Amino acid sequence: MKALFLVGGLGTRLRPLTDRTPKPMVPVMGRPLLERNMEALKQHGIDEIVLSTCYRPEVIEQYFGDGSDFGLKIDYVCEEFPLGTGGAIKNCEKYFDDTFFVFNADILSNINFSEMLRYHKRKKADVTIAVTRVENPSAYGVIEYDADGYAYLFKEKPAPHEVVSHFINAGAYLFEPSVLRRIPAGRPVSVEREVFPNLLEQARKIAVYKGCNYWLDIGTPEKYIQAHKDIFEGQLHLPEMNFHERAVYSGPGTHISGTAVLRGPVYLGRNVRIEAGATVGPHVVIGDNSLIGKKCKIANSILWNDVVLEDGANLSECIVTDASIVDGTSRMKHVIYTPEMIKAAKHLAI
Ligand code: GDD
Ligand code: MG
């Protein structure tokens, strides 16, 4: 079975994390979000993937290649200009001649894909949309559905006074290929604002699937930190880690000084070096080849790869992107570090 990921968005709300990294490549526990989502699909026997790219496609293609290193077959369809979510699906039409999954690429969930597929078939739907309940639906696509589980109304990003339901589009769909013929070609189309409402007008069946009990849209830095907290606390399980069984995971080549203190849960990548007297954790991820200097203190923070914390730095609820060097005098909470921003801050200090 095949799955299509929509990976062309700009990731504006996740800036500056997405300044150099497209949103699907933002690391979750040290591996790209997209890889995490593909690995979840593979567990359900879905191993043919089409990636609909637009923004920084080369970063994605360089990492995944033809998919063979990941046990997948991956095809790429790159847009010259953004076609929107519906236009992107239409643009990949030639790859699909059977029921297929479509995913927004910025979500983390524990959807049981096999069960969702069985549900879709049972409902004889043209499209099935996974829905999830959220407290504040204004940032999402609200869906109303009837007692039989079929959608009858879509309201994308409703103003607070327009909110009629707390069930929202979770960004995971099953499509019958016949639906593709109903999407206009060659122009931007929104699947949420145009394709779904049009299908309803044409009396097509859109079923809603409610079996998703963990769901998060990694749309903002706060949600990005939340995603890691949820994994550390076991609300979302990743295949190779269970923090209830083990407090600290570390990759090959990682060296921790005897006088450093690790307060789990903590996830360390490869070739990480933690120097004497440092305190790391709880809820800390440190990416590959990173150096944590003497007497540093880090809690509730995500460090990407090749990061250096100079001796004495103290970070809490921070995100530090690839190759950033954090000054030892830093005493920071809720800060995002990128190499560009560090340079800019130094420039200002002069
Ligand atoms: N190829 C391509 N081309 N992909 C696109 C384009 C495009 O022009 N525009 C957006 N995408 C991709 C994004 O990369 C993302 O993976 C997905 O489509 C959805 O776009 P977002 O920009 O993240 O949309 P959103 O978060 O505001 O809203 C969507 O997701 C919500 C759930 O997280 C909608 O589908 C809502 O209805 C939904 O509730
Ligand atoms: Mg989104």
Give an account of the 3D structure:
- This protein folds into 2 domains: 220 residues, Alpha-Beta Complex (Spore Coat Polysaccharide Biosynthesis Protein SpsA, Chain A), CATH 3.90.550.10; 102 residues, UDP N-Acetylglucosamine Acyltransferase, domain 1 (3 Solenoid).
- The chain contains 7 helices and 29 strands.
- 42% of the residues are buried.
- Helix 3 packs across helix 5.
- The longest helix has 12 residues.
- With 350 residues, the chain is of the alpha/beta class.
- A 7-stranded mixed beta sheet has the order 5-4-1-6-11-8-12, with helices on both faces.
- The chain binds guanosine-5'-diphosphate-alpha-D-mannose (GDD) and magnesium ion.
- The site of guanosine-5'-diphosphate-alpha-D-mannose has 25 residues, from helix 3 and strand 11.
Q: What ligands are attached or bound here?
A: guanosine-5'-diphosphate-alpha-D-mannose, magnesium ion
Second CATH tier, the architecture of the largest domain? Alpha-Beta Complex
Number of helices: 7
Radius of gyration: 22 Å
**Helical/strand content category:** alpha/beta
Poorly predicted runs are: none
Give the strand content: 25-35%
Mean pLDDT: 92
Condensed summary:
The chain is of the alpha/beta class.
Identify the notable features of this structure and list them briefly.
single chain, binds magnesium ion, binds guanosine-5'-diphosphate-alpha-D-mannose, 350 residues, 6-stranded parallel beta sheet, 20% helix, alpha/beta
